[in-house]
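Forum: Protein Structure Q&A
Topic: Joint prediction for protein chains with partners

I've read a bunch of threads here and the consensus seems to be that you should model interacting components together rather than docking separate models afterwards. I'd like to see that in practice. Below is the full input, 956 residues plus whatever partners are listed. Could one of the regulars post the assembled result?
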Amino acid sequence: MIPVIISGGSGSRLWPVSRLADPKPFLKLSDGHSLLQNTFSRAINLPDVNALITVTNEKLHFRMQDEYQQLNDNKIACDFILEPFGRNTAPAVATAALFAKEKYGEDEILLILPADHLISDGEAFNEAVHGAILAARQGYIATFGIKPEYAETGYGYIEANIDKPITDKAYLVNRFVEKPNPELANKYINSGHYLWNSGMFCGKISTFIAEFELYAKNLLATTKECLAKSPRDKLSNSTIIHLSSSLFIQTENISIDYALFEKTYKAAVLPCSIGWSDIGSWLSIAQNLPKDKHNNATIGENILHNSKNCLVYSTNRIVAGVDIENLIIVDTPDAILVVNKDYSQNVKLIFERLKNMEHKTSELHQTAHRPWGTYTVLEEGPLYKIKRIEVKPGASLSLQMHHHRSEHWIVVDGVATVTNGDNVLELKSNQSTYIPIESRHRLENKTDKNLVLIEVQCGQYLGEDDIVRFEDKYGRTQ
Amino acid sequence: MIPVIISGGSGSRLWPVSRLADPKPFLKLSDGHSLLQNTFSRAINLPDVNALITVTNEKLHFRMQDEYQQLNDNKIACDFILEPFGRNTAPAVATAALFAKEKYGEDEILLILPADHLISDGEAFNEAVHGAILAARQGYIATFGIKPEYAETGYGYIEANIDKPITDKAYLVNRFVEKPNPELANKYINSGHYLWNSGMFCGKISTFIAEFELYAKNLLATTKECLAKSPRDKLSNSTIIHLSSSLFIQTENISIDYALFEKTYKAAVLPCSIGWSDIGSWLSIAQNLPKDKHNNATIGENILHNSKNCLVYSTNRIVAGVDIENLIIVDTPDAILVVNKDYSQNVKLIFERLKNMEHKTSELHQTAHRPWGTYTVLEEGPLYKIKRIEVKPGASLSLQMHHHRSEHWIVVDGVATVTNGDNVLELKSNQSTYIPIESRHRLENKTDKNLVLIEVQCGQYLGEDDIVRFEDKYGRTQ
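Posted by a regular:
Agreed with the consensus. Here's the joint model:
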């Protein structure tokens, strides 16, 4: 079986932790791992998994690869299908199926997993996957139907046809229904055979392709052409496909639910209870964290006085709550959110406003991820900017030059190999160097340990766009 | 007339903005000036004011001097009486009166002003002071009685003896009463002749001394001895007195209300409405700020959605509020407070807990004030610490040495004169130098503009106590 991790949504209701360049899959809860990493772990630890495919945005590739690498002890082959922009789930699934057929043959089973869901009961998940595989082997596409806990109006539902079991655990699907109003949601709950649509599903490659052929012929043809004509990087045991934007834009922007599930007769549903949540809002995060005796959930340093039913999420500051109730407080280095728990959906509105204002907190965190590592802006003054730069083992920044700024570099941990004009020098912790304006320079970490460096930029103009790249090992140009 | 600014309380209910080393007088509201600066401006702009005395803690001296300097265009003589520790208001007033008698003679009038009150109606204040002076000239100590706006239980009250006017605006005091319970407070309000005790008062030096002689003879004697035997710095037109701790501790730790006002027959009260608040809590700050149409008061960048009756105070981050009500949110670089407006008194409990934990946010801000300027900790890692150091024109850090850390200095604005071992060099913006471990070094700003420098410390131990001082122009040793 080949798990396919699909990374889509932005998580605008999880601002200020989720941002355009830092979407929901990278959200870390209390275990120190991101939602993505937990999805990856769940996937690769399933029996008989030797390869995994990820469909994601081109921009997130290196960061996802890094997150996988921390956990991929058995060096499972990780193929990436990189989208230039989002086209909803149907083109993503079709492309993954076509690529998997080409690489692994059409009899393999695909397990499609959104990158940003929470599943707290790993054992139940494994069992459910086992049940889904049995249905998939019979030519069905088995969806995972979560036994509903309450009349949620934020999820779609799947009606199981309980008169038509196809295995001892799965049923044919009667119909898929969209997010209901509260009245309908209650009806669904009471009926006993409606399940939450988790967005996870499982089927043979041949089944997917046959069903696309039947119900989304054009979509299959356009994704096929796009896949065939897009450039690929072939590494030792994995392939990186950069989907061509001019071809990918020809594919239909449509969800797999519309394109396939609402039409096919092959949909099955496997009712299960696996502690699933799609972590759609801060409220759902609060619901999924352990609580103290006053029903407060906290991550990070905090001190609460006479407060109850709150979620406090902080990264590097202490948060004090005094006589507060039913609030969600989220602290990040450059933005703070305080929201009434009953209205956590409205965080999306704040995010939209900030995006429209082009406010920096809608786009980027102070820590930005790059193929070679990260940089964190520590302070910006009128004539200077200070960054902490962390370079991964073996990584290298581009050979570059700035027209308007000079840079002072001080190594605080690890060893830097610095190209500065015609010189190449090695700097250890507590050593420094100076890169004058217009000097060609490069920073490399040739060791197997992280390199940490403080950069003080001086100049009249300090924008990130003042960079001329001469060489870049990650294929980045201007 | 000589205004006497007395700086006492810590402002623990105004945490996280007020801290042990950053007490309430330094709180800045929306006009960009601190409460202290506004008190100073009010004082020096009164008619016939040519000198001012400040009684404050030794540790706050340089910072207060800096704050005054920004506003002291007419170079009014500013004497400082520096206490080694707080002994409540009676010793402070007695010492100020004795010093003023010695310097200005006993016929001058003193106007005692707490450093951290808000007075929004400057014109009414000036008029009230005029009225107080008339009473003072007749040998009274005129207190400023604020016409109460509601039945406040957090203030002391003054009962005016309305049958005994002593001028056309002031009355003899019937009695001083302590903070009442709500029932009593209501009674006071309804009576019409109870006033809030603002803590401001005015009297001739000779009156103060005579009354101390009568009712607090021992206090007067001990403060007299302490004043006489404490070391003084005499500058061109001002004197700095460093009260000796071994003598100052002999003075009684008592308020002027207990020591004098509750006993004297010379107390007068001048009813007035001057927009006074003692800014005792975040609630009172909220009450004294302008509001938007949803009754929200804000300082700093913020975005509020469907929120009302809130105070949002932020320094350098955006704060988003979503569907919140009746909250106070205060953001500082290293601590955030969210408090129910009805319980803002309880912030004191948080402060006390943090103090007991010796939590850094109870003591210092990330920006620390020093006689020569400020430093701000931008980041601390396991092996490094980054500071922005700002040195005032003409100021100089001590000649010093560190056993455990080396320092990289990069000038980003201004010109630094750097002593490094046997060398002295001048560094301009974009120039840097390296101070090795155990090298004697000094940083000076010999220019008339601010110097801004980024310091990256490297070492195994980075505590502020790793400093050996050889010379210090501010008299600091270890």
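Chain A touches chain B through 59 residues (CB under 8 Å).
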